[in-house]
Structures are given as C-alpha cells and as structure tokens.
Design brief:
The chain is mainly alpha-helical. Among the domains are: 169 residues, Leucine-rich Repeat Variant; 120 residues; 130 residues, Response regulator (Rossmann fold), CATH 3.40.50.2300; 92 residues. The chain is built from 35 helices and 7 strands. Helix 7 runs antiparallel to helix 8, helix 13 packs parallel to helix 16 and helix 17 crosses helix 20. The protein starts with 6 loop residues before the first helix and ends in a 13-residue tail after the last helix.
C-alpha cells in the first residue's frame, strides 16, 4: 500500500510553498460571518484592481457636465477632494486630478481624517493612485500617507483589545463586526490574540480566539511561524495547531522536527503531528524528514526565497523578540530571508541528528552567515545572553574552526567573519595550533591572508583576544595583516595600467573627476608593485596592450595576492575580439569586467559604476577603511604593550605603515603613541619631523610630541648630533610664527635636553 506522504511528495509540495495561498472552501463561513482563510486585505496590502476605470491617456470631454459640476462645487474638504480626484481619474482627466491632489496634500490632514478617507474609499482606490505614474509624486505621497495611517490604526493594540473581547460576545452580529474590524489589522492582530491564549484567566474565550486565528488565514501564518521560536511551549503548540488548520504550506518545514523528535514536549509534538496529518495526510519517516531538511537547507542557502519578494526584492518575515515576548516583523532582502530560514531548518536538522558532524557544520554555517548578514558586515555580532553569537560560541573551538575553513572554501565570507568573532569569544589557544602538525596553520591564521579585508580584521581581532603567549605557525601573518590595514588614508584610489603613459594619465584624469586619486603605470610589473602597496585601492583598469608581463599574467598575479584578490578589475580592450574574449573570462571572475576604451567622463562613469557594483554589499567606504586602520593600530599597540602575552610577535615589521599613518589626521594620535612605544631611531626621527611641520594641524604636531616624549623615556634619545643641531635651528626659525608652534618646538627641545645627547648616535643604535 502506498504511503499517503513520502519525501518526494513533501519536497514537491514545498517547491512552490511561496507561490499561492492554501486552498480553502470559498463558501465555508467562519463563526464571525466571513470566509474561512479569506481575510480582507490589510491596509497597504490590497490586491491590484482588475483594471483602472480609465486607462492613462484616455481622451475625455473637458466640457462634460459632470466635470463642470466638480469644478463648480469647489471641493475643499478632504472627502470632497478625494471624491473629485477619484471621479476625475475615472474620466481620464489626470491633469485636473493632480491639481486636486496637490490641494488635498496642502491641507496636511491629520491621521484621523486620513483613516476616514481609507474607510470611505477603500484600499483599491489608493493602490490605484500609487501605481498610476501619470499622476506624479503627489499621488504616491497621498496614497502612502493614507495607507500608512490606516495600517497604524488597524494594528493599534488599544483598538484591538475591546474587539478581541467582543469575539466571545453572545450576539453573533457583534462577533462578526468585531472580527471584521480586527481583520483589518492582518498580521498585527496575531500577537494580541496569542496574548489572550496565554492568559488562563480568560480560558472561556480561548475557543473563539483559536477560531479567529484560523479565520485570519494566510495573513496570520508568518507571525504564527515567528511564535515557533519562543520558549513558551503552550503558545508554540497553539501556533502549530493554528498553522495546521490554516493549512500554511510555508509552515510545513517547521512542523517536521516537533512532530518526530522524541525530546520535544508532548503537547507540542501532538499538535505538530495533528497539523501535518491534516495538511498532508500522514507523517514522514525519520529518513524522509532528514532528506527534506537537508534539501531545504541547501536550497535556502543557495538563495531560494522563502516567500514571494515584493517589488523591491524584499521579503517580510517574523522573528521572535525575547525582550518583547512576541514576534516582530523584519523586512529583509530575499537572499537574507533565505539565509534566515536556512538557519532555522539547519538548526532543526542538527537538533534531530546531533551526532552528525556534517549537520553541525551546516547548522553553524547557515546560522553564522544569517546572523552576520542581519547584524551588518561592518558591525560585530551582538553579544549577551540568548544572542546568536553566544549560542554559536558554545559549540566550541573545534566546530567553529571547522566551519571557518568550510566557509572560506565555499565563499560564505559573512559566516567566516562571524566564526572568527565567536572564536575570539571562546578564547581557546587551540585555534592557533593545528593537531595536524607543528608547522601547519589553522583556519583562523589562514583567514589573515583572505582577500576580504573584513575577514582579515576579524581574524586579527580574534587572535589578539586569544592572546597567544608563545609563537604559533603563521604568527608573522598577524603583524603583516595589521600593517596593511593600518596603512589606509581613507581616500579612494584607482590604478591604471597602460603602455602609453599619456593615455594612462588621461584615464587617471577622468577618474579624478569622479572622486578618485589615481596612478598610472606603463607595464604589468610596475602595476602589480603599486597595487600591492595601496591599502585604499578600489579598482584597477588595465589596457589589453600592457606588457612585462602581459595582461593575462598580470591579472593572474593580482588575483593570487590576498591584497588585490578582491579588487574589481576592468580590462580595457581595443579590439572586438579581445573584448569578446575577456567578457567570457568575466563570466568566471565575478569581479572582472571588460570594456571598450572610455570616450569621456560619461563612459568612464559607467565603467566605474559597473566595477563597483561587482562588490555588492562587500564594498567598503572610506569611513570603514579608516575605522579598520584605527582598529589595526589599536591592536598593534596592544601587542607592543604586552610583550609577554604576545611573545615572538615583532611589531617593528609594521613600522613603515605606522609611519605613514602618522600623516592621516584621524590616525595620528594612535600612530604616534605606537611609534613612541617602538622608540627606535627611525620612529623618533619621524615623530620629530612631524612635530616640526608647522603647516600641519596643531593636534597632529602635539600628538607627535607626546609620542616622542614616550620614545625618549623608554629608550633614551637616539637622534644623531646633526639631527639634534638641526632641531635647534628649526626652533630659532619659529621666532615669527604663532605661539602654539613655538610651544611645540620648545617642547621637542625640552625632551631632548632632559636626556644626555649622544656624541655620535646613528641609525644603527637601538
């Protein structure tokens, strides 16, 4: 006998879970007088009308008596103006309608009047205003104002409470009226209804509340799914039962684990099994459940949206907010929504099969990727009890390191960043030493050479938090990564490679007009050398005529080095054949594009926009690069200040980049402090040099003086006699300069004079 449900049927069902509402009996009435599962559209969510009464551009008679009557009546109140607008649109008189729209907007009606307009004219009228492009921005503004006011009114808990109480009234007419009003709140009505179910003192109302939840239909499905994340077993069971009666296909994947996992509370398990049986006819076997959850997790990880995206590509989900003790709505890009659902299905898979390491990895990968996307790539994961970061860190160092390696191998960079943050929380030194061998680097150390700057920074922060007290394989990578990140000036740089210097400079000029500092190189070797030293490099343009080495080798070298592996590259092709060839290569390298030579600013603008678009949300702006530089300097200072804790790490390797940071105003203070800690002759010389440049901002010079004082205090005065003599000459030349400059120069001499000057100091001193 064939089972009513097998994994293939279940997967086929889920394949279209976002495409249609669950079929209901259109003639079945709920106890409140409406069609079960067919709620009225919530404000702002009305379906598009079948067609406009008058298509845009329809000819009309300006002398029509009806139009003349409207003009003569001189509508002035919001309802009169809205009636005139509606009629004029029906007649195709859009220019006149626009005038009345402007007049209505000028009245700036309060929310109460906007709500009254919505009640009188309905959602379809304002939806038509919003979608009619010929009516202009005023129509959209008016429609949005009315729909937003109506939505706020419909979902106001103060309005819902008395309506919910009336759902249990003995008079059927009152029940119907209450539900009709309550249904306007749509998804927002679920939380107050569930609150009644949580209140045992109102048990007499519970049956009416359950019927109301079901009667809300698909509008209630997403908030009810959100309730499944709560730790309130009774309410989770109520949500599951309602989802089963609604028949929400979106909920199927959330019912598998509670229906089959023997560790789930009996009340919840019974509700889940009943819901699945009602919806599909039977329960899946454990093998079918396993197959389902694996396939669905992989499908969502690949970006399949869990629900139909809106016109902006966003999906609305509901997630449980513990601090509010109820689900809250989030509107996220469809790929983020897919990751969020993937993390949920992967969590169920891991919970059902906790000994399967591949499922633990899948759970961590999906959860880390989703959590980081939600928090933002440039912000750390939130910490604290109950946070995803705390929960995932509890999986331990070995699991996190394994997931970090897998995330880097498969391109889930946000998950890799989050894994580094969690490893820093764990603080296990085992994350820096591989069991495979003494000289084998671990995934955390490997992340220091990843092309993604955010990942390099996260790995560096994690290692400093772990605070290794002895050398570890690849330790020098930490200083190298921090040195590179500290070298940012917060500017936008572009690099051009062209064998003819004049043509290369022309492109640099075009880029300068677009806000980029530029540099042109005439061969591939020089271009690579320049690219590897530019921390703020945002894009590279290379002519197909480049040589020493030729274009293919140059691009390959840039892609191999972690400092440039993620930089967008534009190939400027001077022949149709070459252009076609490189366009094919661009299909493999997602951050490479091929273009014909730019003819002017307009075409160069298009090239730059296309190249930067390849970065997507990974694009770093100047502010974030500067922030990374500040963090890198802070980490270098931490390492330099605790030599025992960070044994074997030589910050002196980063001195060149630290010296460059001195001349970036936002970085001067930490760079000067760090150079003061280093205290070597070159650092002292650089600090004195900056302090003596009276054209620099006073704060920069004062920071340099403070750093110089620290250096001399730690290591003595290491300047040569000639350098000291030169400083006295500089001071004497400040006689006509401002008082602040004289004080800075005098402070430098005071520091020198407190220490015995060397007789023959040179750069070899340490």
């Amino acid at each position: 006998m064939t089972r009513p449900l097998n994994n293939l049927v279940l997967l086929a069902t889920l394949a279209w879970l976002s495409n249609a509402a669950f079929a209901q009996d259109p003639f079945g009435e709920d106890p409140f007088g409406g069609a079960v599962g067919r709620p009225a559209p919530a404000p702002g969510e009305a379906a598009a009308p079948a067609g406009d009464a008058a298509a845009p551009g329809l000819t009309f008679d300006p002398d029509d008596p009806i139009l003349a009557t409207i003009r003569e009546s001189n509508p002035s109140t919001p309802p009169e103006l809205m009636r005139a607008i509606d009629t004029l649109i029906d007649f195709g008189a859009r220019e006149e309608a626009k005038a009345y729209i402007d007049k209505l907007l000028a009245l700036n009606p309060p929310a109460t009047e906007l709500i009254a307009l919505h009640k009188q004219f309905g959602s379809a009228t304002f939806y038509r205003l919003r979608r009619d492009e010929e009516l202009g921005e005023g129509a959209t503004k008016l429609a949005d104002a009315v729909m937003d006011a109506a939505a706020r009114w419909a979902s106001d808990p103060r309005r819902m409470e008395p309506l919910i109480a009336e759902l249990s009234h003995s008079d059927r007419a009152i029940r119907r009226s209450a539900f009709a009003e309550l249904r306007r709140g749509g998804a927002q009505a679920v939380a107050p209804l569930m609150a009644v179910l949580a209140d045992e003192s109102r048990a007499a109302e519970h049956n009416s509340i359950r019927l109301a939840l079901v009667a809300l239909g698909e509008a209630a499905a997403e908030p009810l799914i959100g309730w499944l994340e709560s730790d309130h077993v009774e309410l989770k069971a109520e949500a599951v039962a309602a989802l089963g009666r609604i028949g929400s296909r979106r909920a199927l994947i959330y019912l598998v684990r509670p229906a089959l996992d023997q560790r789930v509370d009996r009340r919840l398990a019974t509700a889940a099994r009943t819901a699945l049986a009602n919806m599909t006819g039977s329960l899946p076997t454990p093998l079918e459940a396993e197959t389902l959850l694996v396939k669905e997790t992989e499908r969502f990880l690949a970006g399949a949206p869990p629900a139909r995206p809106d016109l902006d590509g966003n999906v609305t989900l509901w997630t449980f907010a513990p601090e509010q003790r109820q689900p809250t709505k989030i509107v996220v890009p469809f790929d983020d929504a897919a990751l969020y659902v993937a993390s949920q299905t992967a969590a169920d898979l891991h919970a059902m099969f906790p000994r399967r390491e591949e499922y633990r990895r899948l759970y961590l990968l999906a959860s880390l990727e989703s959590a980081k996307r939600q928090a933002g790539l440039s912000r750390p994961l939130p910490q604290g009890e109950g946070s995803a970061r705390t929960r995932l860190a509890a999986e331990g160092q070995a699991a996190l390191s394994d997931t970090l390696a897998h995330a880097m191998d498969t391109g889930y960079v946000p998950a890799a960043i989050a894994a580094c943050e969690a490893l820093g929380d764990v603080g296990a030194k085992a994350a820096l030493r591989s069991p495979a061998g003494a000289e084998v680097t671990t995934p955390l150390v490997d992340a220091l050479r990843h092309p993604d700057r955010r990942l390099r920074m996260a790995a560096a922060q994690a290692i400093v938090r772990i605070a290794p007290d002895e050398p570890f394989p690849g330790a020098s990578r930490l200083i190298d990564a921090l040195a590179y990140l500290a070298g940012s000036h917060g500017q936008r740089f572009a690099l051009v490679g062209h064998p003819r210097r004049g043509e290369g400079q022309t492109m640099v000029g075009m880029l300068f007009e677009l806000g980029f500092e530029g540099q042109a190189e005439i061969n591939g070797e020089a271009l690579q050398r320049a690219a590897f030293g530019m921390t703020d490099l945002e894009l590279i343009l290379i002519s197909d005529k480049i040589d020493h080495p030729p274009l293919s080798e140059t691009v390959q070298a840039l892609r191999k080095d972690p400092r440039t592996a993620g930089i967008p590259i534009g190939v400027i092709a001077f022949s149709e054949r070459t252009l076609a060839d490189w366009k094919l290569r661009a299909g493999v390298d997602e951050r490479l594009e091929a273009f014909a030579p730019p003819a002017g600013r307009e075409t160069m603008t298009a090239i730059v926009q296309r190249l930067l678009a390849t970065e997507g949300r990974n694009l770093l702006d100047q502010a974030e690069r500067l922030s990374q530089a500040q963090q890198a300097l802070a980490l270098l200072l931490e390492i330099q200040s605790h030599p025992t804790t960070f044994g074997g790490l030589d910050v002196m390797r980063a001195r060149e980049q630290i010296a460059r940071a001195l001349y970036t105003p936002q970085l001067t203070a930490p760079a000067a402090e760090l150079m003061g800690r280093l205290g070597d002759p070159a650092s002292q010389r650089e600090l004195v040099e900056l302090a003596s440049q009276h054209m620099r901002p006073l704060a920069m010079r004062q920071a340099a003086v403070a750093g110089f004082a620290e250096a001399v205090e730690r290591r003595g005065l290491l300047l040569t006699t000639d350098e000291i003599r030169r400083q006295y000459e500089r001071y004497n030349q400040t006689e006509t300069l401002d008082r602040e400059t004289q004080e800075v120069m005098a402070a430098v001499l005071d520091i020198m004079e407190r220490k015995e000057a060397p007789t023959d100091a040179d750069d070899t001193q340490s």
